[in-house]
């Protein structure tokens, strides 16, 4: 006996539903993914959201996929930053432990220090001087003075300031003399630091004479910062600026 048309349509719909549903749901094993559902997004998309299955590996893969051909981090960047940038960071932050670790890692001996690039050597010396590492600063400065290429004026400025903070006027003068002998032109910053060191030792007259002869002797135009330590010391001592200078025409 033939089934009514309505029942036949319902039977066909039920069969189609069951056949199609097997691709998505299995009553015993749980959901079953069809082949197209097993497709994974590109590595860049996985790395864009590390919490969705990417993780650290996905980030690394995504960085490599986004990088242009021939473009990549430098060898120093892969190791956590170059010597130059790390030394600059330690100097700016006055991070003494970081500066000591850098020096111990990259310049434990004179040969290793000489093998660095010029900018890296200068950055290490500046980091040691600004963080107040006495033995490291003296050793690096001595090694730098023996190299054919002289350090930059910034190194000499950091060394003068280092000895000034330690109250070593002789060290400040030695650095300035070495700078002159190696043909490095002094700057106002270096000379002003030397003037402050003279004032700290109560040598205001000599400091003012140096400020007055900066242009003739070093080719540097004295600034307000050149005279301010001398005048401040004279005011603190209760003396007039003209009496301290001994040269009324300078004021």
If you had to describe this structure to a student in words, what would you say it looks like?
- This protein is mostly helical.
- It contains 16 helices and 2 strands.
- It has helices spanning 5-21, 43-48, 50-66, 75-78, 83-93, 96-106, 110-114, 118-130, 134-145, 153-165, 169-181, 188-200, 204-212, 214-218, 224-237, 241-245, and strands at 25-26, 30-31.
- A two-stranded antiparallel sheet has the order 1-2.
- Helix 5 (83-93) runs antiparallel to helix 6, helix 5 runs parallel beside helix 8 and helix 12 runs parallel beside helix 15.
- The model is unreliable at 25-29, 34-39, 41-80 and 241-251 (pLDDT under 50).
Structural class: mainly alpha
> Care to count the β-strands?
2
Order of helices and strands: HEEHHHHHHHHHHHHHHH
**Percent range for β-strand residues:** under 5%
What's the end-to-end separation, in Å? 127 Å
Total helical elements: 16
Radius of gyration: 36 Å
Query: What's the arrangement of strands in the largest beta sheet?
Result: 1-2
Q: Please state the overall shape, judged from the principal axes of the Cα atoms.
A: elongated
Mean pLDDT: 77
